[in-house]
Specification:
Elements: H1 10-23, H2 28-36, H3 39-54, H4 62-68, H5 96-113, E1 116-117, E2 124-127, E3 133-136, E4 141-144, E5 151-162, E6 171-175, E7 178-182, E8 186-191, E9 195-202, E10 205-209, E11 214-218, E12 222-227, E13 233-237, E14 250-257, H6 258-266, E15 272-275, E16 284-290, H7 294-305, E17 309-313, E18 316-319
Parallel strand pairs: 5-6, 15-18
Antiparallel strand pairs: 1-4, 2-3, 3-5, 4-5, 5-8, 6-7, 7-10, 8-9, 9-12, 10-11, 12-13, 14-16, 17-18
Helix pairs in contact: 1-3
Organism: Pseudomonas fluorescens
Protein name: Fec operon regulator FecR
InterPro entries: FecR, FecR_N, Ferrdict_sens_TM
């Protein structure tokens, strides 16, 4: 039997009820009694349903469908919340087995394609056949495209490459629509939901794309971000020692969008990080965050935005005034 925690906080009670109704369908009568006790309970339940909807189109259980008849519909439909956060898998039993299957399907496909893969908060170092070294960040996947290891594809996440020199055989790394061609160098490659970013620590790289056409040479301390389908190219500079600082547990952010920052923090967090206010997605932030303590990093981000960070359940963290 699950008990509802913190009776002073209706929103946390609603989160507990969302879980309990999945585990104990026979508790419907107790839930309906809680729901009718106050307007605050009904408002909290509406918020929780909005939040749960942001995590994916979950099947509606009979008991929750009946409960909706007891809750007046809001006069304004809730806005969709941070679609990027719907992509990340979780171990949430509250979502039900069907929802877990939906979330895990892309991961299963990725596992079949990848030669090397990492999980939440896991960093892995890989030695390729040509002597090059690749450090995979958390929740990343890499496929080796040829036997000598000189051509690879980053399927997901982020990786730092220390490429063994071989003038006769250029090293090529693909990430989405972007390709990076080098002879011998060290660079960081980050594949995001709809963009790819390359940052150079030392040496030279050639960043290339076919549609739209792009061919640009980077020097140490330069960073290039290519977004699709817009074709937008962003160029910026950083201290070369900050390239792939995630290997040392630090996330250096300079004028990056909140959506991009959350996507990076998500790799170190089990479950979902949900941005409850879509207007936050495009806000730009500069700062340094501790990847060894993701909840603290999320709270620091929230503080810089003037909003709240909250752990709703062990699997759901929110960012915004929710």
């Amino acid at each position: 039997m699950r008990t509802v925690s913190n009776p002073q906080d209706p929103l946390e009670q609603a989160a507990d009820w969302q879980i309990r109704l999945q585990e104990e369908p026979h508790a419907r009568a107790d839930f309906e009694q809680w729901l009718t006790e106050s307007d605050a309970h009904r408002a909290a339940w509406r918020k929780m349903e909005t939040l749960w909807g942001a995590l994916g189109e979950l099947p509606v259980e009979p008991q929750t469908a009946h409960a909706r008849s007891l809750v007046p519909e809001p006069t304004r439909r809730p806005q969709p919340i941070n679609r990027s956060c719907r992509r990340w898998p979780a171990l949430a039993t509250a979502a039900g087995m069907a929802a877990i299957a939906i979330m895990m399907a892309p991961q299963a496909t990725l596992a079949l394609r990848a030669d090397y893969q990492t999980g939440v908060a896991q960093v892995r170092t890989v030695q390729l056949a040509d002597g090059s070294t690749v450090v995979l960040s958390p929740q990343s996947a890499l496929k080796v495209l040829d036997a000598d290891g000189r051509q690879v594809e980053l399927l997901k996440g982020q990786a730092y490459f220390q490429v063994a020199p071989d003038p006769q055989h250029p090293f090529i790394a693909h990430a989405g629509q972007l390709s990076v061609r080098v002879l011998g160098t060290a660079f960081d490659l980050d594949l995001q939901q709809d963009a790819a970013e390359v940052a150079l620590e030392h040496g030279q790289v050639q960043a290339e794309n076919t549609q739209p056409p792009l061919s640009e040479r980077l020097m140490p301390g330069q960073r290039l971000k290519f977004s699709w389908p817009s074709g937008k190219v962003e160029r910026s500079s950083l201290v070369p020692t900050q390239v792939a600082a995630w290997r040392r547990g630090s996330l250096f952010i300079e004028n990056q969008s909140v959506a991009d920052i959350v996507e990076q923090l998500q790799r170190y967090t089990s479950g979902w990080i949900v941005i409850t206010d879509p207007s936050l997605n495009t806000r730009r932030i500069t700062g340094v965050y501790d990847l060894n303590d993701p909840p603290r990093a999320l709270k620091a981000l929230a503080q810089s935005l003037g909003v709240n960070s909250r752990q709703m359940t062990p699997w759901v963290h929110t960012l915004g005034n929710f």
